[in-house]
Amino acid sequence: MAYLELEGVAKQFGAQTVVDDFSLSVGKGEFISFLGPSGCGKTTTLQMIAGFLDPTRGAIRLEGKDLAAIHPAKRGLGIVFQSYALFPHMTAAENVAFGLEMRKVPRAERAERVRAALAMVGLAGYEDRHPRRMSGGQQQRVALARALVIKPSVLLLDEPLSNLDAKLREEMQIELRQIQRTIGTTTILVTHDQNEAMSLSDRIVVMSQGKIEQIGTPQETYERPASAFVSQFLGKTNDFAATIDRTAAPARLVAGSWSAPAPAGLNGAVTVSIRPERIGFGDTGLSAKIVTRIFQGNHWLFQCDSECGPAIVIRQNDGERQPAEGEAVRLVWRPEDMSVRGGASA
Amino acid sequence: MSTAADERNARAPWVLTAPALMLFIGVLLIPLAMTVMLSFHDWGQYKGIEPVFILKNWREIATDPYYAEMFWRTFRIAILTTLLTAVLGAPEAYILNRMDGRWKSFFLLVILGPLLISVVARTLGWALLFGGNNGLVNKLLMSAGLIRFPIPFMFTETGMVIALAHVMMPFMVLSVWAALQRLDPQIENAAMSLGAGPITTIRRIIMPQIMPGVLSGAIIVFSLSASAFATPAIIGGRRLKVAATLAYDEFLNTLDWPLGAAVATLLLVALVLIVVGSNALIERRYAEVFR
Fold this sequence. Notes:
The complex is a heterodimer. Chain A is α+β, with helices and mostly antiparallel strands. Chain A contains 8 helices and 21 strands. In chain A, helix 2 crosses helix 3 (107-120). The relative contact order of chain A is 0.12. The two termini of chain B are 37 Å apart. Chain B has helices spanning 3-38, 56-63, 65-98, 101-112, 119-130, 136-143, 157-181, 187-193, 198-226, 230-236, 243-254, 257-285, 287-290, and strands at 42-44, 48-50. In chain B, helix 5 (119-130) runs parallel beside helix 10 and helix 9 (198-226) runs antiparallel to helix 12. Chain B has a single domain (65-290), classed as MetI-like (MetI-like fold, Orthogonal Bundle), CATH 1.10.3720. In chain B, strands 1-2 form a two-stranded antiparallel sheet. By secondary structure, chain B is an all-alpha fold. The A-B interface holds A 50-52, 72-79, 81-89, 98-99, 102-103, 130, 132-133, 146-147, 150 and B 184-187, 189-197, 200, 204-205, 208-209, 286, 288-289, 291.
């Protein structure tokens, strides 16, 4: 049975629908990311789970209980805010202890749990610091400790890493994942950073304009994007216009001078999308010309002008000779590496 | 860079601030110094002011209980006014801050509006409402049979405190408002998510953070109330003098300028000590919130 369940959840502000028909079931201990551009409704959804906003329609259930009937203060969820929202007039230890105080945990046990929580996030010895005397990364850790010390049923993270610099963000990602694995708290992360979503989560919910575009594991959403939006939002992709020719026998899928056996069930004009790292240079295939060639250490990035419009190709720097700028090339890829969308059903 | 240019650079700030500095010295520091000097001069009914150095005025203020009572009343009124503005103004600012955009700006204007009206006009308004048998509110209540005698307001300390609090409210609201702007917009949600109810959130999370705002508002209100002239003059009149009205009377009625100067100087010194002292205290106490 699902641990946390959202069923047909929608939120409207006036005439504007911010979240529409959001259904998701989260298993216990799962790490889920809501991924999408700003304004896609991911934070609104998180706030509805937290109880700061009431859904216009739909139900949110935790272990089978309807959350609408439970006041936000009684839901027992741990939340880490984008701005951390630490209490500036309290020390790190007092911040972490606040939730335990509200739960009337005895003083001795409280002190022990606060110490353990701060140690878990690597802040042992910082108990008496005030938040404004700490770095962004340290504040972030205090916020995480404050949310985890109450042993929340679900941990909600609202863009927790977006205020950190790139290096620190990477470190925190690894740490966050380890902590989550160790204590096994069901976690929902809201982010606009596809790398963050992919490296942290068990499953990603890709959202756009208030709707779910796709729910799947990081690999699924990357390799088999359900829509053009998903394929473009998750990493770089090439979209080529192609046609399925059913007059030939067997039927062929044709994009410029590249062609392959047509997939079953489709007809007419379609779009094929291929990840740049899955395209190679060959003797036959889509003819193109290299416009720019950029060296990026472990790989080469080529921008090409192909029969079907601009194309990006990424090749591993494996020591092989790579085509130069202005060189005419043929682009090839395996049919199983592309996804085909659109077209009439045949 | 050459030394000449260095010198020119060092002089530049002085040259640039010279006009303001001259004005400041000319209209504030010199008259102030003259007032302090005046407080040591002698004065007689028939001989006028004698430029000598004596402690007569200061001795009179120190020994005559009339002055002690009057200064005590001044500070009592200022303290009560400060408390009243804090108790009403802080929640007012908090409620205002939680309002929606359009209502917020409308009510902010309502609060600030009185600042656009002269203090004299505002205080006379109170007199029109509560002044003796002819005051509007008193008349209404008496004709309705709710009260037999007019509510005592004019020439009472209560009246002065209420009228002063009304005049000073915008300063407190603005000061708390500024402190509220520094609050993390998610801070209340954070407290709620940890299990705190609304009362606990206000008491444990909001109050400590806006306290610096309340206290700096209190300093403004206190010093303005203690040195207020118009409101005590209209509500308190001759019967209930405070330091400012006393100094005025000594200068312009008794014509005993040296005594008036001594009263004014004492008020100034006392205020400076109180304000600087409490400011230092607040800054030390709330160092973490101010950062």
